[in-house]
Amino acid sequence: MGPNLRAVELDEDDARPEQQPAARRSGRRRWPWALAAGLVAVSLAAGQHVVDDRHRAYLSRFERVPGVIQALTRDPESLWVLPAAESSGGVQVDGAIVLFGPRDDGARIERLDPATGDAAWQVRVPAPDAAAPDDAQEAGVECRAATAPRGADPRVVCLVSPISLDYLADGGTPTEVRVLDPRTGKTRDAWRQDVQVWALGGDRVLTAEPTKHGGTRTWTVTARGLDGTVAWTRTLDWTVPAPRADGISPGWTLQADAEHVLLSADGHGALLDASGAVTQRMESDGMSSWSLARAGLVVRNDLRPTADQSAYTQESSLATPGVPPGQELYLAVDDGSVPDLAFVTSTSGGVAAYDVRRGRQLWREAAAAPAQVLLDGVLYTETATTVLALDARTGRTVWSQPSGFASDSVYTDGHVLYVQSRGALRTFALADGTPGPTWSTTGLPLADDLATGRFLTAWNGVLVLAGADDGGRTVVG
């Protein structure tokens, strides 16, 4: 080797490995995925909550329909008693009973729990001061449930007057109108006006007052919103029949739904539409009145003397053009579905459905019974041996189940149908007719003869024993 070169020995143990770049912290890039997963979990939970809420709403969608009763979970027994003196009437609203009756120159209105009879709230409403005729009755009070638009809060409308509205007063009677929240009893709106007869049509308050001019009487019909604002006024004039020697009169009534208003008085009648325009006029010899049925169907009610002239009976018949003779079908429960259809029992028997606007029959079920339940476009009925669910628009059989007996009444809690026979309430699922439990009524003091003793019936969303000697009601459940 040359002078400038020298030998060296490599020490491989001292050799440093090549330095690697520092590893990146994976946490900096992982958080978006964790956040996304959390959001997905929250969304799924929220979605499931919405689905659960919708399912619960679907299952309970009929529970607040007027006429739907509290569900039975055992053989019915007495729960509480409502004495006759405690009220003059009640109305089913918001899952409870709003009770009303005259008290101390006014009215007492209260909300009762259907299960216990306990009062959640109670209010007193004074009647307006007014001179009462000597033959006038005590203070009058009437409450009715307004049909609120979907999503709106429920409301109860009560009218309180110094005398009963059964007393005909020229110009009407000074009346306090209260619109109450049925959940709290708080007054939402109030006003005073003269009233002779009134009705609720959806969320409108309809009133009518008479004014006599010689041999004619003018009736003024007014529609107001729940805040008292006047929507329209219509004046009707007709001749007043001469008073009968026996004093019998068909009286006066005002009825309404969301699209129709019917006034009947002095042997005359008028059907108005939702704007107040007259669409049909009726008149008689003074011994007839008219009433409003489903879909604007008009029913004529005639007073007929008995053979010995000692009393009068009422005969009803349909008075709408295009609908043949028959009787209005009694609906124990009606949720307002298929509002354009009317259901009648024909003179030849059975039940028929009519499109009132077009004046034509849609279907007929020859064997159906007169007591019915209508929910979500399905008509539930029974024959002597069968329980039926019929499509209300087509008459098609949705389901059919043998019952083996003729029932006394039909009820529903919004989930099942209760078919009453002697000693029992048999149940059938509304959805498909599947038979459920049979509840015994043998523990209730029911009479063998329903005309002379206590009987089971539905009243404002509860089952009650009615027919007591004192006029009271025993709530069962």
CATH architecture of one domain: Beta Barrel
**Assembly classification:** single chain
Rg over CA atoms: 33 Å
What separation lies between the terminal Cα atoms? 119 Å
Rounded average pLDDT: 83
CATH topology call of one domain: Lipocalin
**What is the strand arrangement across the widest sheet?**
22-26-27-28-29
What's the CATH first level of one domain? Mainly Beta
**Count of individual helical segments:** 1
Largest sheet: 5 strands, mixed
Structural class: mainly beta
**Tell me, what's the shape?**
globular
Q: Per DSSP, what share of the residues sits in E-state strands of 2 or more residues?
A: over 45%
Helix content: under 10%
Secondary-structure map with pairings?
Blueprint: H1 27-59, E1 78-82, E2 89-93, E3 96-102, E4 106-112, E5 119-126, E6 140-145, E7 156-161, E8 173-180, E9 187-195, E10 197-201, E11 204-213, E12 216-225, E13 230-239, E14 253-256, E15 260-265, E16 268-273, E17 278-283, E18 288-292, E19 298-305, E20 312-318, E21 326-328, E22 330-334, E23 341-346, E24 351-355, E25 360-365, E26 371-375, E27 378-382, E28 386-391, E29 397-402, E30 409-412, E31 416-421, E32 424-429, E33 435-440, E34 455-459, E35 462-466, E36 473-476
Parallel strand pairs: 22-26
Antiparallel strand pairs: 1-36, 2-3, 3-4, 4-5, 6-7, 7-8, 8-9, 10-11, 11-12, 12-13, 14-15, 15-16, 16-17, 18-19, 19-20, 21-23, 23-24, 24-25, 26-27, 27-28, 28-29, 30-31, 31-32, 32-33, 34-35, 35-36
InterPro entries: PQQ_b-propeller_rpt, PQQ_rpt_dom, Quinoprotein_ADH-like_sf, WD40/YVTN_repeat-like_dom_sf
Pfam family, one: PQQ_2
Domain Pyrrolo-quinoline quinone repeat: 349-469
